[in-house]
Each structure stands twice: as structure tokens, then as C-alpha cells.
Design brief:
By secondary structure, the protein is mostly helical. The protein has 16 helices and no strands. Keywords: Membrane, Repeat, Transmembrane, Transmembrane helix, Transport. It comes from Penicillium citrinum. It is found in: Membrane. Belongs to the MIP/aquaporin (TC 1.A.8) family. GO terms for molecular function: glycerol channel activity; water channel activity.
Amino acid sequence: MSSSQSGGQAGAGASGNEYQEYEPAKGTQEAGSKNEGAGNNPAFSLAGPGANNPASNAYVGDQYMEYNPQYGQPNENPTWSLAQPLPHIVRPGMQHGALPEDRKEDKQRIENGQPVNESSDKPDDEFFNTWTKIRHALREPLAEWLGTTVAMTIGLCATLSNFTSSGQAGTYTSQSVAWGFGFMVAIYITGGISGGHLNPAFSIAMSIFRGFPARKCIQYIAAQLLGAITAGGISYAIYHDAILEVVATSKLPQNASVAATAMITAPKSFVHPATAFFTEFLGSAILFGAIVALGDDTNAPPGAGMQAFILGILISIVVLALGYNTGGCFNCARDFGPRLVALMAGWGGQLFREYHAWWVWGPWCADISGALFGAFMYDLAIFTGGESPLNYPPRRRKRALRVRTVNLRKKLGLGPKKRTRDLEKSISGSNS
């Protein structure tokens, strides 16, 4: 009651008997606006607390605590919120003392004057079971496999949904968006572990132009191809009944039905091979050129966590703009995995021979060379970092190329296996 009376008195002091919820800002209208923007008066904004001034806290009225005494009290319990990082806790079964032998060992330690509450089953190598040790060694390739599986499953299922339903359950626009946002989701899942390459062409270009280790590059490509095969198998199994229905309706074999257009990429019958090649080349160049631009902190990098969202939009746009001629591959694994699954499903070996072995010179040659060209053009025009070969001093560039050549020939068993002792002399001779 006292609170309402004080509120009424404040209102009466301001404008007769009219009730006001808070004291208005003193001075001019401009000063009042500034006062509200600083958070001194309540701003009922749908943008959330502190929207006008992110550094300020939410407004709390003078009488608010009387009606909500629990407000602002510290919460010591973990909150499993999907809007923030999940808490790290020790499960009851993992806590010390959960096993009878824990209590027995604690009693013995007390008798011996030793500290208690220490896990006796902690191994010396900090791995509690075999799988944690395997995962530690293969965490990045496993992330690439999982990310590629998720991204391609979303994209392939959206494409199969469009084609097998004759456009009733999707359009070319919707499947393009599904491909883009499928990769966005996958990058959010795996980006913090492996970087979310999800594309052999990107891993290769990253190795050449950004110093990504070659050994990891090989591991990533193997994981990406395995993920593409997994995604192709999942998508084919999910839409197997729809594919059979389309085959029964069109009276065509599976490898000649619209399902083949959804599972694998290929140029349209009227598209010239050179046009098909440079379509894939251009799309990959734009994609990877944008990727290295987004990763350049001397340019205008997006805010934290926004790279994946922007890449999802970019992939959707590139597929929409350039996907008609060839099916919009722009990813070596996107074509190879489902094509191999189709071969295992009995679609015939001609899948790897049609269009003059398109699967080699399109998704592999065009996409890899396009990604390399995109990085080259960005580094040539904008990038100043020393990790790019374009920014090496001439002598270091020649030496790095010579060392790579010697090491590669040695690993492949080509030529003499002994090292080139006069490496520096040969480089100096090439300069003269």
C-alpha cells in the first residue's frame, strides 16, 4: 500500500491527479531523449535490454524489487540453454565416491595421511577409455566427415525432394538455399574443431595459399569424400521409395530418371564442354575468393560467428546464379560421393564415363583450379600477409618450390633419392 501511495504522490506532484510510472527527464525534449538513450528511464524496446546502450544494464524500477525479490539473485545451478554455451558438469556416475572402491580407497588414504577426493583410475596419458584416445588423434578428420555428411545430406535431400515430386515439394530456388544453409549448419557444427572446409578444393587451396599442412590436407580430403559417400547413401535410402515411384511413373530406369539429375551433377545436353568447365571454374573462384576475404582480418571481417551465415548465403547465391549449366557442383566431394553410391545401387558404370568423364574434368579439375585462381586473384589484388606465396621474396619463393619438388620426387621414388646438397647453389644459378 505504501508503494502505491508514494507513486500517487509522485504523480500528483507532476501533473495534478494524473498517475505516472516514473519521473520524467528534466530539461528540454532533447535532454530527455538523451536521458532515455542512456538507460536512465525505461525503454520498452523489443530489441532487448540495453539495446540503446549495450554497456548499460536493464532498467529496474524503484519498486520492482518489492514485487519480485528473487530478481537478480545469483543462480548457482547450471542452465542447459540453447542460446548460450552449454554447461560443463561432472555426471553423478563420474563423481568421486560413486563407486564403493572409491570410498574404500579414501578410507585407506585417511589412515595413511594422504589426500582424498582424487580419482584413482585416472590414467597417466589422460585418456579414460580407448575411444577417447582414438577421437583425440582423429578429431579433426572426424569433424570434416560429420560436417560433410550433414551439409550434403541436407542439400541432396532437398534436391531429391524437388525432382521426385515434380516441383510440388520444392523449387530450384529452395534447393539452392538448402545447399547454402546446409553448409552453414555444418560449418557451425565443425568450424571450431576442423575449420569446416567440407570441400577438397578448399583444403587444397588453403594448403597452397594459407599454409595449411599438406598432411592434414590429405586427411581432410579423405574424410570429406567419406562424408560425401555417407550422405549419398543416407539420401538415397531416405528417398528410395520416391525414386521407385518416379521410375514406375516415367517407365525409365533409375539412371535415366530425374533422380539421376538430383544425385549427380552433369552439364546440360546443349552446354558446350568449355562453358561447363568455366561455369564450375568461376563458381569455385568466387566462393574461395570470398572465403579468404572473410578470413582476412586486415580487410573487413564479419562479426564473431557470422562467417558461416555469410558463406551460407554466398553458396546459395552462387548455386542460383551459376548452377543451371552444370547442376551447381562447386565441390569435388558433392559429385563423387553420390556418384559412387549410385554405382553401388546398380545404376551402371557408365556414370563414370558419360560426358567424356565429366566427374574428372568438371568437379575435380575445374573446381580445384577455380579455387586456386580465386585465392590467387585476391592475394594479387588485396592480401599482404606473408603466408601467401605471392608475398614471398623471390629467393624464398624459388627455394620453397625447389624443396617441395625434391621432397615430392623422393616420396614418389622418382629420380635419385639423395637430397640435393647444392640446393642454394642451384637457386643462385637459376637467378643468374
